[in-house]
Amino acid sequence: MPMIIKEKDAVNKKHIIHYFKIISLLSLCIFTLSFVLSGCAQMEPDTIHHIKIQVRNLNRKVANLSQNSTDSEQALHQTQVNVANQGTKIASIKSNLSSLYGKYEIISHDMKLLQAEFRNYRILVNKELIKLLKKEKFKSSVISKQKITPKITPKIAIVKVKPAPKISVKQLALRKELKEYGRAKSYYNKGSYKKALVLFKKYLNKYPQSQKAGDANYYKSVSNFKLKNYPVSILEFHKFTRLYPKNKHAAMAIYLQGIGFSKLSDPSDAIILFKQVIADYGSSKAAALAKSALEKLAK
After folding, report:
1. What are phi and psi for residue 144, nearest 5 degrees?
2. Which of 48, 54, 147, 198 lies deepest, with the highest CB count within 10 Å?
3. How far apart are CA 258 and CA 297, in angstroms?
4. Under 8 Å CB-to-CB from 195, ≥6 apart: which residues?
5. What class, spelled out in words, does domain 152-298 have in CATH?
């Protein structure tokens, strides 16, 4: 109970002090008003009118300042909203960048794995090509030891002509060489690729430095290609283009090399070779065929 009484006394004291403050403020306002009125009574009408005009001007300035303050607050609010929106956009961009970086890391890892697999695949292919090339060389050496007794048709019969006294030994050797080349080429033209392959190999073993050696190498490579000996033909086309880069068959050799790779289910190397033909021999028939082959691979 004593505590409650003390609290009530404290409240009453606060009320009394509050009332006293209000009475004092009212007294001050009444005194000020009376002072102003007594002063105004002594003022002239022009002075009062001038004061009123100044008061109106001040009111206008205050109103303008208030309007400017409101506009400034609105602009500040809009700026804050824009900053918040930009912050949201920046956060979204950061999130997208983080997601893209994560995808890049995954793709980069997958690419490294694919490159490693591709290297291993190329090693296996090269090993198989070497094995096939060794077998092919062994077969050719066996065949070259055997006697070739082809049936000579009347169209390709070789007529032995006795050389005239004025023909030199060198000219006779050249005639013999051209006949052997022509014989191999005739089988090639008829589509007898096995027989043509044997004769071109024999010709190249006998005349490795001949002027027809480049063409003979090309037709030998094509014969292997036609016989679907794709690994062997790929190696032979590669060797041909390195030894005879200016030969008229160089563009077609690169194209057929690409076809050979595509037959071995390796389109990546084929695409590289097709693009090489288009870049280096743009106006050739091989380039047109390479463009067509690229379009088929792209489908």
Report:
1. -65, -25
2. 198
3. 12
4. 150, 187
5. mainly alpha
Q: What pLDDT, in 10s, does the model give residues 149-170? A: 455 555 555 555 555 556 777 8
For residue 178, give Cα distances in angstroms to 15, 188, 213, 284. Answer: 137, 15, 11, 28
Q: Which long-range contacts (CB under 8 A, 24 or more apart) does 138-145 make?
A: 140/198, 140/201, 143/198, 143/201, 144/198, 144/201, 144/202, 144/205
pLDDT in tens, 51-97: 878 777 877 777 777 687 678 778 888 888 888 888 788 888 887 87
Tell me which residue has tokens 């007898």: 192
* SS3 assignment, position 152: coil
Tens digits of residue pLDDT in 196-209: 999 999 999 999 99
Q: Six-digit token pair at 28?
A: 């001050």
Domain parsing of the chain, residue ranges = 1-32, 47-146, 152-298
Q: Which run of H or E residues covers position 246?
A: none
Model pTM above 0.70: no
